[in-house]
Amino acid sequence: MIIKKGDMMVEKIKTGISGLDQILKGGLRKNSSILITGAPGTGKTIMALQFIYYGAKKYNENGIFIATEESLSDLRANAKNFNMDFESMEKKGKIFLVEKPLTTLKGGIASITGLLDLIKKKNIKRVALDSLIFFEYLYPRHDGNTIEFRRQVMMFIQKMKKAGVTFLVSSERKVTDLDRLEYEMMDFVFEGFIILSRVRKGSYFERILTVAKIRGQDHSLDVYPITIDNKGLRILYDQVPFSLVEKEEEKQEFK
Ligand SMILES: Nc1ncnc2c1ncn2[C@@H]1O[C@H](COP(=O)(O)OP(=O)(O)O)[C@@H](O)[C@H]1O
Ligand SMILES: [Mg+2]
């Protein structure tokens, strides 16, 4: 789909993540780089899996999923719980699961030539990296390597851009209050930045998503509830999180 935006033609792709394309007003800009951040258990891996799986299955865009934290067999089993049959797509040569155990990353960035070859040979259009810890291990930020870390991530993003893929990366971060979110360096390196979080209301946690920014693309800034069940992760793009609604009401009462 091509959407005219000023003088610029923006070609968008469907993410394959239910509800997200509505929030993004048609989908993600093709060939962009997106960071999904949130605490453990907020749904980052499921989103990344859906991006790759439905990208290949529904939109005919071949994909590579790079796992650093879970074994490939765990991922396949996990995906099956959400009704995604990775194995059949792998057999068709439409999806490639790549394992990058942290202990074998010694080759550093040089070792991505294999990845670039695969992208070319298999006509890959989407790459998901789960997660940014891949780079943190190579260039630990807390060892005074911040600049090198940033440089390497930027180089990787540039390589993905040049290779013509849309690139989604997950990263772990505790988000407790969306109003007081502190922006990290990484948020500026990527073109898009999506936050997953949980909001507590009494003894209940509600899952939420917000699109913090997408460079060069119009999108909604609202906060949306999300659900995870055996069909996967869905963003309820036409609903307002009840936890936030009640917060607003409380504020008004005390005016
Ligand atoms: N079958 C299921 N039904 C509902 N929720 C599930 C199911 N399987 C896993 N979950 C939830 O999904 C979350 C894990 O998502 P995941 O994408 O692995 O998180 P992250 O990668 O952000 O750590 C957990 O919070 C878990 O409660
Ligand atoms: Mg994960």
Can you describe what's shown?
With 255 residues, this protein is an alpha/beta fold. It has one domain: Rossmann fold (3-Layer(aba) Sandwich), CATH 3.40.50. Strands 6-5-7-8-4-9-10-11-12 form a 9-stranded mixed β-sheet, with helices on both faces. The protein has a 3-stranded antiparallel β-sheet with strand order 1-2-3, with no helix packed on it. It is globular and about 50 Å long. The model has no long low-confidence stretch (mean pLDDT 86). The protein binds adenosine-5'-diphosphate and magnesium ion (MG). The site of adenosine-5'-diphosphate (ADP) has 12 residues, from helix 2 and strand 11. The site of adenosine-5'-diphosphate has 12 residues, from helix 2 and strand 11.
Radius of gyration: 18 Å
For CATH, the homologous superfamily is named as P-loop containing nucleotide triphosphate hydrolases
State the end-to-end CA separation: 47 Å
**CATH topology annotation:** Rossmann fold
Number of helices: 9
Question: Would you summarize the structure shown here?
Answer:
This protein has 255 residues and is of the alpha/beta class. 32% of the residues lie in helices and 29% in strands. 38% of the residues are buried.
Q: Layout of helices and strands, plus pairs?
A:
Blueprint: E1 2-5, E2 8-13, H1 20-23, E3 28-29, E4 33-38, H2 44-57, E5 62-67, H3 72-81, H4 86-91, E6 95-99, H5 113-121, E7 124-130, H6 133-138, H7 146-162, E8 166-172, H8 186-189, E9 192-201, E10 204-214, E11 223-229, E12 232-235, H9 242-253
Parallel strand pairs: 4-8, 4-9, 5-6, 5-7, 7-8
Antiparallel strand pairs: 1-2, 2-3, 9-10, 10-11, 11-12
The structure holds adenosine-5'-diphosphate and magnesium ion.
